[in-house]
Fold:
Amino acid sequence: MLNEIVVISGKGGTGKTTLVAAMLAYLDSVVVADCDVDAPDLHILLHGEEIYKSEFSGLQRPTIDKETCISCGLCHEHCKFNAITEGIDLLRSKCEGCSLCAYICPTKSITMQDAVVGTIYHRSIANGDFVYGRLIPGEETSGKLVSAVRQKAKQLAHQKEIETMIIDGAPGIACNVIASITGASQVVIVTEPTVSGLHDLQRVYELVQRFRVKATVVVNKSDLSDEGLQAIRNYCHEEGLLLALEIPFNRQIVESISALKLPPEGAPEFYRTLHFEKFMQSIGAL
Amino acid sequence: MKIAVPAKGMTKADMADDRFGRAAYYVIYDSETKEVYGVENTAKDEVSGAGGQAVRLLDKEGVKVTLVPEVGPKALQAFKAFDIKAYTYGKDMTVEAAIEEYEAGKLQIVETESHDGHHGLRRA
Amino acid sequence: MKIAILSGKGGTGKTTLSMNLAYMLKHAVVVDADVEEPNLELFLKGHVERTLPVFKSYPVIDENKCTLCGACGDFCVYNALLPARKGVLIHKELCHDCGGCAVVCKQGAIHYEDRSIGTLTERKVLDYQSLYTGRLSVGEVSGVKIIETLKEIVAEEPFVLIDSPPGTSCATVAAVEDVDYAILVTEPTPFGLSDMKMVVEMLQNMSIPFGVVINKAGIGDDSVTLFCEINNISILGEIPFSKEYAAVYSRGGLLAEERSEYQDYLREMIKHFPLDIAEDAVGGDR
Structure:
């Protein structure tokens, strides 16, 4: 059975991608997917050959044929997203692709056509395969791109009979995250000992519970605040959540990333003292 | 009576899929004529509501029973609305094995009457 | 005058900068448009003046009129309606509220009703300043409607600071749309640079003038500075990395209140705003 581990964080910047990068250093054969399609970062660290790249169309958008358009204004009146101007021009960033304009147009001057909203990449890396997506800035349907990236990664895992798949999920609690965790084996929630870190952990865990997926918590920068750390420990205890790892702040981690190295390569001793291997075992990845 | 199984291919020898709405194909078996054929799941790449659309597709094929792995609340509602019975099978089995277990009465029926409803959360 | 504070990735210090600018610019009305993880009120506290639900519409079918023709289901690209044998199943949370199904229904069997997808809270914080917080309910897929409602509320306010969602998704576009100026907060790491580039692309596409604030300066490298110089992007200021600052944040403290040198960083930053923005900003300077 494929162990599909999704790393998420309600709050951004808690070190989700850094944790994923650290996990990768411990695995011999893995499929990894970066589903943070708004701000994909993992590809900066994971060097390798690009095998495949394809444009992704998540929705259809109208094309207006100005030759046959009689400027009756029906499309403009009916569009609830204000995506068609009075002059019958499409405001791309506002269009959600509902196709009502094409339906309502009396002269059939509007047709719906596939719109590219992002790109999916596949790279071969030292210990396996890496799939990531990139949304065109400001585009709609990022949830669908997330699903497509995961699907591609899953296909590879099945084809190559790889047992561990790590997903760098999206931050927040909306469509991207839902698409990241739907049907996963388990999630790892990364947080930090701050008031906002706890608040966001609570919100994202509330979401995770609805999917009945097993969850494990990792606290990053755990030495920022004793009080904050205690609050997170208490919360995990009350909820019966496993707090599997507390990682104190360490400059070497930032330096490794800046040198484009996986953190355990830049700070091997630090990860040894953390017993990172034990953490990997606790989530069934080793 | 037509029985459908979500599958990775179009024949009885293919593995049954571990997802219902996002499966690539459905293998349909007619228990009277013993005829078997596959259909492509045109709903599998839908952003949302794939399960419901898949049920609609199976209804058009005249399917009355579906064997399912896990199933989300939306697909359950849809099974109920289309009067299709759903039975669950275990992991890692072929379509043929799943059908055999169904015919031997070994599979459990999915309760579609009541659901506490995490409506719509299975699919984003 | 509206200023958006945004970042390519979470955790760069966007919310920290927002709350401290709010403290310095006491005539500012503050909007927390990061509706998935609204954190400003954890720091600015104050007291609640009012809380309102935010509604979104969904279709309701009159079963006496419905002939189960299936036209609504064929039309809806979001699969919010599923015409079945006994009736039409409605998935409220999938509805984008485009209004199309009521148009295509020849029987006139469809009307719309409202459901709550989150809340909007007004607080009085600091110097009796208004803080408007949007909060998306857990399990909802999109916060765009809440952001749009927030922006309607502050439309007539003379000076508004908007803490925007991170990244470049449709929610970010909704938050920064028609602002006069944007402050892009980044950190000097390879991840920070990569994410920031996506926001730069988005802001340029939207023709919104902006400047960059480098947070946690001193960790990482100088690639962000180089990128800004090459691309002629104005750097408004740098705030050095400090574990003490992080500790103040972690317990919910306000840096500008506790540390005088932090006020100096902000004053220096405001001086680097374009002239008209700076004039409006200092209208109520501390």
Remarks:
- The two ends of chain B are 33 Å apart (CA to CA).
- Residues 113-124 of chain B have pLDDT under 50 and may be disordered.
- Chain B is about 25% helix and 25% strand.
